[in-house]
Amino acid sequence: MLKPTVKTKLLVSGVHLDSEGYPNVRYRIRAFRKSQRFELAEINVPMWGGSKQLKRGRVRLMSDLFRAVFAHLSVIIKYVIHGRVALVYVPYPSVFIGLVLSLLPRVIRPNKVVLDAFISLYDTVVNDRKLLAPDNWVSILLKRLEKLAFTSADIVIVDTPQNIYYLCEEFGLPESKVVDIPLSTNEQNFRFQPYKTNNEVCRVLFVGTFIPLHGVDAIFEAVALLRDCEHIQFRVVGSGQTSQAVEGKIEMDEPNLEWIPEWQTSDNLASMIGEADICLGIFGAGKKTQRVCPLKIYNYAVCGRPIITGETAWSRYATKDLAYKPFETVPVNDGAALANRIKQLANSRGRRQQLAKNSQRFYEEQLSNEIALSRLESLLCGN
């Protein structure tokens, strides 16, 4: 007679928001709930509101700050009331909850704290989006707090080996403390769709929030260079930080461009991916581009679509031992190279069909939720 599996007690504790805007958080926790390896409890007070408010400026800033402080205090108080547990997993944003947990008296402090770093707050605010200068006192404080949180944690989770190297170098962490696990994603809406080429037109899709690492300048340069290729049509979905700068550089009436600035539901995005012949990844020139596998790559690949993305440290690492090519790469921040590769694929149906098969295979072998959960179970259950 088989012995019943002893489940590991796991407390998920944080200020995370359960929404499609943060699929890694949503689907990771759902995976924990379905797993046969965990006995799950959750403490969650979201630091963001679910409703869209029209407040601006100082009123909004004060409201957001109050909500953030309230959420963090509420989570800690609920944890103390709940009582000490052996294992706590803190979803993104994890820094301040992890920091406070490490400062609790030993008698109520968790035995093991696992922080899902996802992305570094300091790196995002200072290095990537350049919202603050490195010598700004807020930047210095943020980096010190983030370093203290990561140092105090028992395990820190990121999504790529390159992000391990960055965190260890930037914050002085031992590599043994930081592990890479693929993101958990929405496999309900985004799932395999057999690829069928269109004889009349090649549809090129980019989906993104226009942050610097996306390198949308290169994408729109490719749009302009291919304006006379009537069989190549671009659809760009999204807007964001660099939108205004891009608008000033392109003709808004480009005949081969459909730009949809409004963000779409997961159903709509999955449908658009299903209609695409080529999907575009990231092409930014910054250091962060080199380290990430963006969510869009997951969504394109699980649907089984040909992908072109920037040649980065991550893309070279992810493909170095593969006998097949899961996606095409071009130099980052090079619109001409991107335009040339799009044109090549647009004129080769067979190559696109092979890339479609390869991308879906890559997802199943490297990025799927099943793989992520298996590695999490081994990590958290100690085997």
Structural summary, described in words:
The protein has a six-stranded parallel sheet with strand order 2-1-3-4-5-6, with helices on both faces. It folds into two domains: 8-186 and 369-381, Glycogen Phosphorylase B (Rossmann fold, 3-Layer(aba) Sandwich), CATH 3.40.50; 202-367, Glycogen Phosphorylase B (Rossmann fold, 3-Layer(aba) Sandwich). α3 (95-103) crosses α5 (137-152), α11 (295-303) packs across α14 (349-367) and α14 (349-367) runs parallel beside α15. The longest helix is centred in the first third of the chain and has 26 residues, at 57-82. It is globular, with a radius of gyration of 22 Å. It has 383 residues and is an alpha/beta fold. The protein contains 15 helices and twelve strands. The model is unreliable at 51-56 (pLDDT under 50). α6 (161-171) links the parallel β5 (155-158) and β6.
